[in-house]
Amino acid sequence: MQPTVIAPSILSADFARLGEEVDNVLKAGADWVHFDVMDNHYVPNLTIGPMVCQALRKHGVTAPIDVHLMVEPVDRLVPDFAKAGASMISFHPEASRHVHRTIQIIKSHGCQAGVVLNPATSLDVLDWVLEDLDMVLLMSVNPGFGGQSFIPATLDKLREARQRIDAIGKPIRLEIDGGVKPDNIAEIAKAGADTFVAGSAIFNAPDYAEVIGRMKAAVEG
Ligand code: DX5
Ligand code: ZN
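Above: inputs. Below: predicted complex with D-xylitol-5-phosphate.
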């Protein structure tokens, strides 16, 4: 199992003060910045692109930037995000015609590669690519919006994903995204996640350090 990572999703941050918001969550104990990219095509919402990622780097953010692509097609955006300072890039297999090729493109640009599975997508898509991945991201809500409720069936899926990762014995992260809160993070961790995205639970809280601290204590306790 990898060390715990808390990755606040900036989807729920105040975009008018994005640099300051990111500085504040990192100061409050966050490990990564989760960067949700939506294209109004693969998902019914529209957010931010490589320019904003680059702006965060220029602002002085040195923490890993975890780019979650909810876009179709995927491949042509990869070099732009790599240049803009992305540390890891994850994509939805339904949005890429050639999943193996997309993983290779991400890695050849010097980023870590992740595959994201929607709530109704089977773990079987990992069958022939798991060894090539740095991260598996399970969606515990349908992608497109922050503030939705955690889908409980994801716990069984996490347990199965954890077994598959442990079976090949590689340091592949298991990330969970959607509806993660201080009061459910302990059972999500017990099911096998080591990397936790949380948007509304962190950015809607009055005290970022307090909520991130509570989440870490719940995972480690
Ligand atoms: C949803 C995004 C998530 C979202 C999570 O498509 O991928 O990262 O911001 O938000 P919460 O934690 O509020 O469910
Ligand atoms: Zn996300």
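Strands lie at 5-8, 33-38, 65-70, 88-91, 112-117, 135-139, 173-177, 195-198.
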